[in-house]
């Protein structure tokens, strides 16, 4: 009997008989919370033992190392797929050196390397990959989800570092957890709004409108650029050119000017960045990357507008404005085939 | 972008599944189409098909059995235990159960957002006793004397359906779920609500194969003392696993306690209301007494009248069936049963089914099928052990006097027909209630 079949038989005995269906861009924590709710188990610890196989109460990074989306009869996805499609890892991968990225991905494939790779999982700590603290959601998205699916979910796009508004509705995101502690599956305060999302009242609508207006005034161009499907297309280039020409005035400058500008901006925004991300935005990295881009660019087109570098554009947008359109970030094919050649 | 699967997860590897769901929309009523929970059920049977499936006549080879020495052959007689001839109302009863199961799934399409909303809110509904749910769960009652074959009939009807159907994919949508079509439990002894809930968890564990594993719901429930938590847990499990029908056998047991009696029935109704599964009660004539006692105790207030009325009404929303005892040897079912069992004899000279024999067997068994089958076994065993080659009426009489002695006075009462007509006397009670309650 092959190892695969043996393994599948083993876990089929252990796995639960059902699982909910994840919705697009759903955060793994959201999926787990829904699963726990539907399972009927009263103890979060028991549920974690059955679903992940560890005596833990929260989906920690060490638990994630063993995570597979499996039920007794259907194998949904492996850890690699979950990592890429249900965590913020694709976003953070942009800022990480190649080696830790590879190690993390390797760890998600190989069971025996879990212990050895624990330090890399620590690197991908809870706030980075799983982001269980201060989960945010957009009330309008939640209302849409409640109508379409019958439940609401936490999306990755709302939980990117420094993202404060919904790119779809241009609305300020609400923070789910006021206790500033990991969100608990069974905590009614944390989960109530997920399951019984009340319709927006007039005050909420007013607040939403004001937030939308303020957000739109501040970063309309980013939104326009980001709201288009293909971030590497001509239209996007046009918007970016216009935006950078207007705001940055560095669009047609050479490599040195751009490098200086980027480094200066990074330094100015360093405090806003999560420490783990900021570590990888050292000037030396930035200079190397930008020079690399310029070296094979086809001038006079600016390297920033190259179709090959959507991640770079998104990274810049994140740093400059603290906002990014994760929908396009996810829709980008490059993300599905990790390409570490483009990295700041 | 909004397909129901992991975004960008395109390779859903479906391994294998025992009891895989097979969806047949062609023979499904239009109203039920597009609902995997209904389409995965076995096709709707005709009355003849139902009766054919319910009938169980074991295959025996008389020639082989007759070669055996009598003391070994006496064990062959146990084939009689397997004989099952469905009563005349069985087809209608099975159709009603089928209707209730399918009807319970109509509002529970897993791809419907309303149902999903219900799934996530079901625990809160149970905890808060929230009435924001549609009360369309059907309930049916089957009553009959002990030994009439209520449990066996119900079990045979339920076993026409797979207890658990494993879904993996419906059309182009991924749907990993285990659908529990039916559960059968016994009513709690002394009306213990906690015992009842524990038996429900155990039944779920058995159905899903969770017994003696870490996944066991009953193991978890045993550590919880809070009944509300157990109720909310059960309604969630029943809703998640799309429980179709819950069979509660020997419902007359709950009359044994006076304090929790009403609470148990109301809890069952609450569970069914919230989780939207159908309920099937079966028991002896004491069901009548349970309800009549409740009615007689509380006749003073309008509120109690409405409570009792609701309970009684809900218990028969899906139908009310009674297994009648054959009062005459000319009863078609009884005659058919006699002619059937007399085909299963292991003596050289078998007893021939005649009118006299049928009359004799009806008299001695008081028309109860279980007593008839028991006597048929014991009489043959008596004949074989006495080294006789023919089966006679006297062997039945011997077995009756020897082995059924405790039952003799009870069967005598039945023969006199004293307890045959204790049916629901609700109309009379309600007339009395209407005269007492001031509705102004």
In short:
The complex is a heterodimer of chains A (344) and B (440). By secondary structure, chain A is mainly alpha-helical.
Percentage of residues in DSSP E strands of chain A = under 5%
Protein structure class of chain B: alpha/beta
> Please, how many helices of chain A?
19
How many DSSP helices of chain B? Answer: 20
Q: Report the principal-axis shape of chain B.
A: globular
Keywords:
heterodimer; A: mainly alpha; two-stranded antiparallel ribbon; 19 helices; 4% strand; globular; B: 440 residues; alpha/beta; 20 helices; disordered C terminus
Notes on the protein architecture:
Chain A has 344 residues and is mainly alpha-helical. Chain A is 54% helix and 4% strand. Chain A has helices at 3-14, 28-39, 44-51, 61-64, 79-86, 89-93, 98-109, 118-123, 126-130, 139-148, 188-195, 202-227, 234-248, 255-269, 275-278, 283-295, 310-321, 326-331, 333-336; strands spanning 69-70, 75-77, 136-137, 165-166, 171-172, 174-175. The longest helix of chain A has 26 residues, at 202-227. The relative contact order of chain A is 0.11. Mean pLDDT of chain A is 56; it is low at 1-12, 188-203, 211-254, 296-315 and 317-344. The termini of chain B are far apart. The chains are: A mainly alpha (344), B alpha/beta (440).
Topology:
The complex is a heterodimer of chains A (344) and B (440).
Chain A: H1 3-14, H2 28-39, H3 44-51, H4 61-64, E1 69-70, E2 75-77, H5 79-86, H6 89-93, H7 98-109, H8 118-123, H9 126-130, E3 136-137, H10 139-148, E4 165-166, E5 171-172, E6 174-175, H11 188-195, H12 202-227, H13 234-248, H14 255-269, H15 275-278, H16 283-295, H17 310-321, H18 326-331, H19 333-336
Antiparallel strand pairs in A: 1-2, 3-6, 4-5
Chain B: H1 36-39, H2 47-54, H3 62-66, H4 70-76, H5 79-82, H6 90-106, H7 113-128, E1 139-144, H8 150-158, E2 164-170, E3 173-180, E4 182-186, H9 193-208, H10 217-222, H11 227-240, E5 245-249, H12 261-275, E6 278-283, H13 286-297, H14 302-315, E7 319-323, H15 332-341, H16 355-365, H17 369-385, H18 393-403, H19 408-415, H20 426-436
Parallel strand pairs in B: 1-6, 1-7, 4-5, 5-6
Antiparallel strand pairs in B: 2-3
